[in-house]
Amino acid sequence: MASLDKEYLNYPHRSYGMDHNRYDWSQLAHRKGVQWPNDKKIALWVNVGLQFFPLNQKGIPFKVPGGMTKPYPDLRHYSLRDYGNRVGIYRFLKAFDRSNIKPTFAMNTQLAERIPYLVSTIKERKDELMCHGYNMDALHYGGQDIEEENELVKKSLEGLRRLTGQEVKGWISPAKNESAHTPDILAANGIEYFCDWVNDDMPYEFKTTHGSLTAMPMSTELEDHFIILNNLHSAEDWSDQVEDAFHFLLEEAGSQDGRILCLNIHPWVLGQPHRIQYLERVLKLLGEHSDVWSASAGTICSRWNKQQENK
Amino acid sequence: MKEDPGYYDYWPYENRPKITWPNGAKLAFWVAPNIEFYELNPPNNPFRKPWPQPSPALPGYTSRDWGNRVGHTRQMELLDKYGIRGSISLSTALCDHHPEIIAACKERNWEFFSHGIYNTRYTYGMTEDQERAMIKDSIETIYQHTDQKCAGYLAPALSHSENTLDLFAEVGTELFGDEAGFYSCDLFHDDQPTPIHLRNGKRFASIPYSLEMNDTIAYLVQKITPRRYGKELKDNFDRLYKEGANSGTIMCIPTHNYQVSNAHRIKAYEEALEYITGHSDVWVTTGKEIAQYFLDNYYDIALSDIQTKKQQYGKLG
Question: pTM of the entire structure?
Fold first, then answer.
């Protein structure tokens, strides 16, 4: 058996707080409460991933979850993902409007380049767009050349800002994957909040070399992709889980303070004819509930930030 | 390498001497929250990669961190509500990183047992001396921060050596005599406590810590729905409670704050806790109390029954 270096029993970061300097350690239950407008208990953040999975996927440093899995040309996965941007998304939009839900769209810049119609539709709706990287195969990853990543972030943000006319202050990396530099590069390029670090149920301050970002709590565990395609539960099971989460958070908000329910959903998953009714069911419950404030990620983020300044 | 770890003898589940738990209880129930610290940049181990992605591996790291920042309080409040003291399987470096969590558990008189230093430092490849030093560090850390003499062990990330149980028992004896190092959660061969053979002959028990009821196995490996998990917990309880009338059984729910405390999962867990603790003949207790009770009252009877059956039937093969 290979032996281990004596360093294996050294623990250089074994001290108070985290084992890195990106954010301070704190427990949610011990923090000062946050209030949402009109004393609503739950801020509902419906986040729609608008994604382009290239057919000629490079898979560096790994095949992105949801991407191509078969030998080239994997028409099956390519077209099934594309379905979301052609068909599923329009079912989503109808469902949002029917239940007065204010969605946020996380869009791959290359998708915005490819489908001006969709960009124009979202612009007309005046919904917020955040950048979801260049495409789903353009991963940010540990060991990536820093100049290459700089260029990738610049290209993605400049492109989306130009095409949408929005400032684009939010970011989610493809597959929520990062290099050690990603937060610094994002902050240097005008990003104010990002969604890759899923370690809280509320926003928190994340330190970078270019000032602070706000880490926004985009739950992976409640994502349609995670529950339906990774765990292989039905769409009905997804809606049961969302409803259980909502009722729990409502109770917790009653005893503590404002909470966020983030639903990160994808039109290629829940936009299917046999699944859309379960999204509609959830949106109806949430949209009609008197304790719910439906708002965009940026709006929720600023509201949270304002209350931090007043401390 | 051995064909059989040699820790225990074959001992058929039928016709064992009857165990009765305190106050005539049929089932001893314990909840073992794993309170863990996973490192963002752990050193490499040639036998097991800590994370699937190149560092920083956000999905795994952030999910575990969520458990400490958000999940812990949720589960703790739930256990308070049902009068359950947790038996913590502890990454002992957490005493340094997150002393607030340790203080809250200590205040509730929860049990702390060793789960190594970090859950990203594996036993694989350690020399006997290295493993002994790691275990000793963990037991000393628990004592320094909680005044508790660590009774139980669950190897970090279930990574073992051939010596793991022996080393744990020996270090316990070295530091605190018979008051520490007397039970293991690392073996899954039974629904009742069993005597364990150790090289120093110490009185030592294996206490059932069910992998099947473990939330991480249910959610990450089996990928079942929260409501299904709640149902499985109740089903597991129903059968063990019924069989406990013949001879006392043990039900353990090993949990992880980053799994079971998620908003969409905690209700199903609560329903199971409410159901289980709502039965009259349940001893709601801790791992250490079960182990101590077994060692004091049934260990010798068990050894003698095993010996009798061994003599009667011999060993096959």
Answer: 0.96
